[in-house]
């Protein structure tokens, strides 16, 4: 290790955070913020509702109002029938995905002894107010089982974040580590920073990590080997995100249980079926040429990961999954959970609205199975967040009042949702302890919290659609 605190001496002076960073590139920052919005505005969430979508909503509301005035019973019956059909479709699809996830794979693993030429690998890490995470991050990137001279590490921070910059400069980093300070600009979001870093990337593959992530040291090598043995249309590999509650609180355990279901069962099943995958926010491994061809990330979408995964599907690209995990610390505080979840839900609505600007075109590009899958995953996440709270209140009212009752259909739906949720949680990967049984039993108490987050998400979407709620992390 050299006197400057960085291993190796091959990197140029400007690419070594211990010495200096390249000057901010305003032109590059402008492209990072508005590239997709300018070149393909129909694919960007910069505009929340298009004029056509706005008129369609007004006409739909007017039609519903007229039917409600003329025949309120007919309107209510129609809404209930549509809701029941959608609910049954979501439950059936979830059960199919669980079966696919558990079905033994017939894929042939790579042959032992076949060496893979490891190409350059770019690691993009966007940070904002992450000084506390920097020491752990430095240890993490230094521990990767990958040739150090093939790593191209980009640490991306915002102008004015002096605490994070100081923390970065105080650590030892691999030789080819570059500190990039973004010029001031809007929107100040993670995808804008990632686009800025992508423009300077040199690796054949690109991976995104968050500052608090703890990826398995062999994850890069595993991804490189998987890409080498895969067809060219495989554009991305999603590593499983595993929640590791630091304090063991109930809210954090429920969050971790959600992740176990999503990344241990649902995403692998979708990938196996070749259906669209809404990516997680970290540990996405890309072929750089495919990522660049897709336009990169939409800086105006606050769930740029989900948006990018669906855009790749629309372009005919596939997403696969890895087994090598990345460990994350779930939010322990209710306010932190609410802020994070409201951003996710706001981004889900943005992504769905962008997708549905051209339903016929999306249907052609995704084909019927892919189009239906998006509605039964992303669409279901939005709808369930809207109805969980009111449904829980209605069930409670029926339980305490003798004059109210759910009816046969309501009771069947209630039992089916509980059974499907419990089955998903029981089949999800993870250690079995007595506390896990308690978490599964109390999972229905967690679901209504989504409605609180959705209410905040819709308010934010109307007032500050591109505001990025920062999730603070404890290390």
Give the gist of this structure:
The chain is of the alpha/beta class.
Instruction: Find the CATH superfamily.
Output: Spore Coat Polysaccharide Biosynthesis Protein SpsA, Chain A
Uncertain segments: 1-15
Counted beta strands: 10
- Tell me which CATH architecture applies here: Alpha-Beta Complex
Q: Please name the CATH topology.
A: Spore Coat Polysaccharide Biosynthesis Protein SpsA, Chain A
* Major β-sheet strand ordering: 3-2-1-4-8-6-9
Q: How many angstroms separate the termini?
A: 27 Å
Portion in strands: 5-15%
Provide an overview of this structure.
By secondary structure, the chain is of the alpha/beta class. It has a single domain (19-54, 85-97, 116-475), classed as Spore Coat Polysaccharide Biosynthesis Protein SpsA, Chain A (Alpha-Beta Complex), CATH 3.90.550. It is built from 16 helices and ten strands. The strands form two sheets. A seven-stranded mixed beta sheet has the order 3-2-1-4-8-6-9, sandwiched between helices. It has a three-stranded mixed beta sheet with strand order 5-10-7. The radius of gyration is 23 Å and the shape is globular. The relative contact order is 0.13. Mean pLDDT is 90; it is low at 1-15.
């Amino acid at each position: 290790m050299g006197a400057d605190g960085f291993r190796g001496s091959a990197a140029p002076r400007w690419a070594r955070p211990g010495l200096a960073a390249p000057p901010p590139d305003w032109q590059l920052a402008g492209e990072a913020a508005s590239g997709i919005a300018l070149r393909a505005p129909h694919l960007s969430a910069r505009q929340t509702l298009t004029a056509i979508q706005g008129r369609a909503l007004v006409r739909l509301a007017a039609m519903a109002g007229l039917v409600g005035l003329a025949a309120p019973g007919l309107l209510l019956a129609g809404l209930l029938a549509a809701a029941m059909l959608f609910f049954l479709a979501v439950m059936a699809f979830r059960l199919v995905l669980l079966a696919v996830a558990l079905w033994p794979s017939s894929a042939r693993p790579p042959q032992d002894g076949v060496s893979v030429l490891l190409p350059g690998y770019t690691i993009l890490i966007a940070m904002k107010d992450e000084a506390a995470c920097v020491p752990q991050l430095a240890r993490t990137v230094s521990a990767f089982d990958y040739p150090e001279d093939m790593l191209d590490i980009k640490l991306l921070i915002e102008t004015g974040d002096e605490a994070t910059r100081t923390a970065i400069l105080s650590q030892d980093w691999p030789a080819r580590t570059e500190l990039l300070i973004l010029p001031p600009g809007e929107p100040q979001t993670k995808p804008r920073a990632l686009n800025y870093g992508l423009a300077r990337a040199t690796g054949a593959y690109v991976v995104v990590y968050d500052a608090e992530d703890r990826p398995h040291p062999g994850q890069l090598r595993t991804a490189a080997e998987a890409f080498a043995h895969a067809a060219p249309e495989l554009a991305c590999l999603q590593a499983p995100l595993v929640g590791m509650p630091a304090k063991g609180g109930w809210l954090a355990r429920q969050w971790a249980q959600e992740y176990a279901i999503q990344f241990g069962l649902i995403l692998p099943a979708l990938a196996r079926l070749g259906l669209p995958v809404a990516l997680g926010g970290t540990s996405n491994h890309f072929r750089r040429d495919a990522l660049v061809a897709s336009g990169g990330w939409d800086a105006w979408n606050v769930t740029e990961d989900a948006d990018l995964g669906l855009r790749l599907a629309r372009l005919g690209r596939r997403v696969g999954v890895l087994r090598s995990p990345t460990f994350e610390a779930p939010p322990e505080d209710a306010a932190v959970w609410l802020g994070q979840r409201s951003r996710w839900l706001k981004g889900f609505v943005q992504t769905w609205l962008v997708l549905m600007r051209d339903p016929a075109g999306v249907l052609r590009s995704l084909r019927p199975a892919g189009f239906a899958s998006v509605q039964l995953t992303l669409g279901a996440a939005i709808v369930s967040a809207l109805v969980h709270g009111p449904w829980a209140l209605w069930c409670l009212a029926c339980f305490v009042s003798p004059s109210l009752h759910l009816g046969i259909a309501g009771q069947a739906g209630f039992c089916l949702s509980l059974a499907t949720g419990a089955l998903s949680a029981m089949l999800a990967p993870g250690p079995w302890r007595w506390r896990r049984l308690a978490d599964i039993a109390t999972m229905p108490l967690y679901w209504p919290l989504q409605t609180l987050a959705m209410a905040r998400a819709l308010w934010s979407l109307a007032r500050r659609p591109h505001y990025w709620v920062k999730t603070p992390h404890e290390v």
